[in-house]
Write a structure and sequence with these properties.
By secondary structure, the chain is α/β, with parallel strands linked by helices. It has 3 domains: about 130 residues, 3-Layer(aba) Sandwich (Rossmann fold); about 130 residues, Rossmann fold; about 100 residues, Winged helix-like DNA-binding domain superfamily/Winged helix DNA-binding domain (Arc Repressor Mutant, subunit A, Orthogonal Bundle). The chain is about 45% helix and about 20% strand. Strand 10, helix 11 and strand 11 form a beta-alpha-beta unit. Helix 3 packs across helix 4, helix 13 packs across helix 14 and helix 13 packs across helix 15. It is elongated.
Length: about 375
């Protein structure tokens, strides 16, 4: 994967946060392959099925009082349910109960799991859409019918309410419930990284993960800062529109790929982040400012966080002098000493390896040595 024809991956120089509990390694590997640095903090953990008292209670209830309809929503969830019932010694009873009811499968994968268990589904929508399942149920009439719904991790907004409003007795079978992580420290580090803008993008692969991050931020009094960072500096990338709902409800603009898969999600980030990078013609060089590194004529130069903060402040007003007090304000946690600016500036110039990029303007401050006659497509980027 090369972009701009240079030898680096499209995400080289950028840092991306991963909040997933499941498939985090796969997502991290896809991002690293494109050059990204990855920060992982699971926003959730999955309750092990064998320990799940709610799932056990729902299973017993269905064995004791047969439902009329069972809706299977995910293959992994349906398989997990049957395996858990086996482990508790109720496997055969559950299967014989499911043989006698109308079994609806949300899509082809679920159909496969149902048939692998020796059962046959009554019907499956062509679209894999829960809305189509709901239309069928409501069309047949659900008044006085007992409908069991196998859930996978997240609740289905509106689905249960619509069935209950139609007079159904709905039994929820919560397979794979999400809970807060046992160790909250990595999530707190992720939150601090978003707020301090040391992340360029953060990925979400489930709505509960987004809810978890937002509620942890609220608990720590950081919600306004988090929303500000996600609004202006840190790209919120979701695997699909359902995942994006909690963020959009909080006023955050998100991006999601057209196909709701990890590969397209990573490709989208690989397009979005380089497009957001500032590219400027400076002192005869092409300078592209990325998250934790700078490409100077396609050569990658890693820059420490304080240096990046100064470079961003200079690049927001390219060619103009930025005063020491303004640069000091841009430095993370620098206090009031203007020597901090000089120290960080010296390190920044060393990191860039091209001393003429930043000019010292005596008694006034510093400026990026913008080439005024250079191709304006860079200046406008």
């Amino acid at each position: 994967m090369h972009d701009h024809g240079h030898p680096h991956g499209p995400l080289t120089g950028f840092t991306v946060g991963v909040t997933a509990a499941r498939r985090a390694d796969e997502l991290g590997a896809l991002l690293r392959r494109r050059g990204a640095a990855v920060l992982h903090a699971p926003a959730l953990r999955i309750v092990p099925l064998a320990d799940d008292a709610e799932l056990l209670a729902a299973t017993k209830e269905l064995i004791d009082h047969a439902p009329d309809v069972v809706v299977a929503t995910t293959a992994i969830g349906f398989r997990g349910w049957v395996e858990a019932a086996d482990g508790w010694g109720f496997g055969e009873e559950l299967l014989s109960r499911l043989r006698g009811v109308e079994l609806l499968a949300r899509g082809p994968k679920v159909k496969g799991a149902i048939r692998a268990a020796g059962l046959t589904e009554e019907w499956s929508p062509a679209s894999e859409s829960m809305a189509e399942v709901l239309d069928r149920l409501l069309g047949q009439g659900v008044a006085g019918r007992r409908v069991a719904l196998q859930l996978h991790g997240e609740p289905l907004p509106g689905f249960v309410e619509a069935l209950r409003a139609g007079g159904a007795d709905v039994v929820l079978v919560p397979v794979y419930r999400w809970m807060a992580p046992q160790d909250i420290a990595p999530l707190d580090r992720m939150l601090d990284a978003v707020v301090s803008r040391s992340l360029d993008a953060i990925t979400f692969t489930s709505a509960p993960a987004a809810v978890s991050l937002l509620s942890r931020a609220e608990g720590r009094g950081l919600l306004p800062l988090l929303l500000d960072a996600l609004g202006h500096h840190v790209l919120a990338a979701c695997v699909g529109p359902v995942t994006a709902v909690p963020l959009q409800a909080a006023g955050v603009n998100t991006v999601q790929p057209e196909r709701f898969r990890l590969g397209p999600l990573v490709q989208l980030i690989g397009m979005e982040l380089p497009a957001r990078a500032r590219t400027l013609p400076v002192a005869g060089h092409r300078v592209e400012i990325r998250g934790h590194a700078v490409l100077i004529d396609d050569e990658l130069r890693p820059v420490p966080p304080a240096g990046m903060a100064l470079l961003r402040a200079l690049s927001e007003r390219p060619g103009w002098v930025v005063s020491r007090p303004d640069l000091l304000r841009a430095l993370p946690g620098a206090g009031r000493d203007e020597h901090a600016v000089e120290t960080a500036m010296a390190r920044l110039r060393t990191a860039l390896g091209a001393p003429k990029l930043i000019q010292t303007v005596v008694k006034r401050g510093y400026r990026l040595a913008l080439d005024p006659a250079a191709d304006t497509k860079y200046a406008d980027a």
